[in-house]
Amino acid sequence: MELELEAATRRFHLWFRGLRSLRRDLASARWSDDAAAQLPALVGRFVAHLESYCAARAGLDPVWTLSAPWATPAERGAAYWLAGWRPTTLVHLLYTESGRRLEAQLPDLLLGVRSGNLGDLTPAQLAQVDDLQRRTVAEEDALAREMALVQEGHGVVAAPSADGSGLLDVAGLVRTARAVLDRADALRLRTVKRAVEILEPAQAAELLVAAADLEIGFREFGLKHGSGRDG
């Protein structure tokens, strides 16, 4: 069990270092002369990085996944939903970044000058983002209800006890928890992929940089004010 935890912790730290590196590459490429050539591949690498981490987590003991001992208390307390970031956070971040940029460049937009950034979303894009938000909220709610049942101890009775009350199928509950966590990771990944599909490469790069900044910021805050773990 300790070896599994050490391996999971090491995997998280490697993934997090990769996140920092991809964030730097995306931010640098966004304003380079050959951004149009670089950004699609970098956005794809970012999504693949998240996908590989979700795949690695699928084989982890759900108890470790939920407790996330490699994370800081600040991350677990403020940033985590079912052992990771809440998928709708990405959509809220998209709206926030779009609104901030739109306000800054409104005079140019009124003159017909297009920026191509997140402040320049088309009506069709906004409609798709709204649909993504509604679908994601519904899936989050369903997963939260399922995990609540697990945490309340609802499960199959494995065998009758001496007093006839029955024994809780703990192994079954663990399997159910693992399934819910896997679906939560799948929803996180699906939300990122759909957002990237909706956006142009430059817009997607801006969103992913903002998402990475949010995750990195929570971790740095937790390391400064929490356990002091090396991240």
UniProtKB/TrEMBL annotation:
Gene Ontology MF annotations: sequence-specific DNA binding
Pfam families, sorted: DOG1 (PF14144)
GO BP terms, alphabetized: DNA-templated transcription
InterPro entries: Seed_Dev/Stress_Resp_Reg, TGA_domain
Domain DOG1: from-to ranges: 5-228
PROSITE patterns: DOG1
Database matches in PANTHER family: DNA-BINDING PROTEIN-LIKE PROTEIN, DOG1 DOMAIN-CONTAINING PROTEIN
Protein name: DOG1 domain-containing protein
